[in-house]
Amino acid sequence: MDTNARATTATQDTLTRLREELKGTLCERMGMDVLSLTAREAHLSMPIAPNRQPHGLLHGGATIALAETAISLAAQLHAESLHGEGAAAVGTSFSATHHAPAREGLVHVTAHAHHLGRTHASYLAEIRREDGTLVSTVLGTARLFPPRKEISAR
Q1: Is there a contact between 113 and 71 (Cβ–Cβ < 8 Å)?
Q2: Taking Cα atoms as reference points, which of 32, 17, 13, 30 lies closest to residue 70?
Q3: Hey, which end of the chain has fewer CB within 10 Å, N or C?
Q4: pLDDT tens figures, 49-96
C-alpha cells in the first residue's frame, strides 16, 4: 500500500468534484464516466453509440480520447501527491493500437502506471468491450508540473 494513499487515491468527494469539473468538456460530450481513480490506476467508461465513425464502429479517436483522459487524470493525482495542490499533469505522447471493433454498449478503460517519476508518468491503458474483448491499447506519457508561483505585480 502507498504511504501517500490519501494523496494518491481519489475519495468519493474528489470524484464528485471531478465529475463537476468535467461538465461542458469533451469528456462530458463523449459520455465518459470516472468509475475509480488512483495515481496508479484509473477506470472510466464511455458509451459507444455517440462515438461511432460512419461504418458504425467505435471511432479510434474516441478510444484514444478515453485513454488519454484516464491517463491524464491518474497522472494529475500523482503530480498532486508529489508537488501539492495546484500541480498539473499534461499529456505529451500517446500511441494506440486497435485490436478489435466495438459496435454497441459501453467500453471500459483501465490505465495502469508503468513509471511514476518526478517529472513524467507513463501508463498503459486497455480499452475493452463489456464482454472483456480487448479493443485497443494505448501507451501514454504525461509531463508533471509543480504549482505555478504567483508573480507579484511591480
Answers
A1: no
A2: 32
A3: C
A4: 999 999 999 999 999 999 999 999 999 999 999 999 899 999 999 999
User: What pTM does this model have?
Assistant: 0.88
3-state secondary structure of 149: coil
Q: CA 100 to CA 57: how far, in whole Å?
A: 10
Paired with 9 in beta bridges are 38
3-state secondary structure of 31: coil
Catalytic residue among 28, 41, 68, 85: 68
Q: Name residue 54's amino acid.
A: P
Distances (CA, A) of 96 to 62, 67, 99, 114: 11, 9, 10, 16
Q: Is 104 tagged catalytic? A: no
Three-class SS state of 79: helix
> Exposure of 3 by Cβ count < 10 A (0-12 exposed, 13-18 middle, 19+ buried)?
exposed
- Cell numbers given for 71: 491517463
The DSSP 8-state label assigned to residue 32 in this structure reads -
